[in-house]
Design goal:
The chain has eight helices and nine strands. With 237 residues, the protein is an alpha/beta fold. It has two domains: 1-20 and 70-108 and 154-237, Rossmann fold, CATH 3.40.50.1220; 22-66 and 113-146, SIR2/SIRT2 'Small Domain' (2-Layer Sandwich), CATH 3.30.1600. The model has no long low-confidence stretch (mean pLDDT 96). Adenosine-5-diphosphoribose is lined by residues 12-14, 17-18, 23-26, 30, 90, 108, 174-177, 179-180, 199-202, 204, 220-221.
């Protein structure tokens, strides 16, 4: 039985902001200020205009490949050498992977994968564009391997994320507005005796069911993770 401290990093778009990737709801230029969710992130939008949807994700895939993991991603990856680390992310970019993290649960899918529209178990790695006419081995159109609004998250991912939350000694929530269900329920499974830290430049409303002691760090992901790294080293836990 590992006696290593169990740390859960629950991340959202904000952790990739310092890598130059847009968040969704940032007041200034969040993705949802420039696109209608219905048009590019729902099955209805896909049925209505698949080319618009493919283009939306092709652009984000290119931006993802041009971006680099930032110090926050890197510290999380480095902490795996000392702690039992799980990353539960709402992000579809691959910056946690490219920083070196190895235990990652993507709740909302992955930009670098495509999927059959006939058989959702047929998933393919991808780095280029998905175009209309690109088909799977069963001859059906390929789509982005993303969980759209109105679609179910994979049970396996939710169950693993809940388990990680229930078992962790420390949960660090980084860069998420916690507005999207059911992903936003994961932190509420953290044991009341475990520590919860929230890293966000904004004052976030975080209401967990139990009376958790939540420590807020009003700063960027990089500043927050550098501070956490320093404290963990100082406490030699
Ligand atoms: N460091 C840390 N946090 C930041 C930074 C930064 N540099 N910049 C912005 N943030 C914070 C914002 O203040 C906000 O609280 O990141 C959060 C981003 O929130 P959202 O844009 O709502 O992103 P997220 O919570 O990941 O969205 C969840 O919504 O549209 C769906 O599927 C999409 O996975 C996404 C889900």
């Amino acid at each position: 039985m590992s006696s290593k401290l169990k740390i859960l990093f629950f991340t959202g778009a904000g952790i990739s902001a310092e890598s130059g990737l847009k968040t969704f709801r940032d007041a200034k230029d969040g993705l949802w200020n420039n696109y209608e969710i219905e048009d590019v992130c729902t099955p209805e939008g896909w049925r209505k205009n698949p080319v618009l949807v493919l283009d939306f994700y092709n652009q984000r895939r290119k931006q993802c490949l041009e971006a680099l993991p930032n110090k926050a991603h890197q510290i999380i990856a480095e902490l795996e050498s000392k702690y039992n680390v799980t990353v539960v992310t709402q992000n579809v970019d691959n910056l946690h992977e490219r920083a070196g993290s190895t235990n990652i649960i993507h709740l909302h899918g992955e930009l670098m994968k495509s999927r059959s529209t006939k058989d959702e178990t047929l998933i393919y790695p991808i780095i280029d564009d998905i175009k209309l006419g690109d088909v799977c081995e069963k001859e059906s159109q390929l789509r982005p391997h993303i969980v759209w609004f109105g679609e179910q998250l994979e049970d396996k991912n939710i169950n693993q994320a809940v388990k990680a939350a229930m078992e962790c000694n420390l949960c660090v929530i980084i860069g998420s507005s916690l507005q999207v269900y059911p992903a936003n329920q994961i932190p509420s499974y953290v044991h009341p005796k475990s520590k919860v830290v929230v890293i966000d430049p904004l004052d976030l409303e975080v209401d967990l069911d139990e009376d958790h002691s939540i420590h807020f760090m009003k700063c960027s992901a990089v500043d927050g993770m550098e501070e956490i790294h320093r404290v963990l080293k100082e406490m030699e836990i």
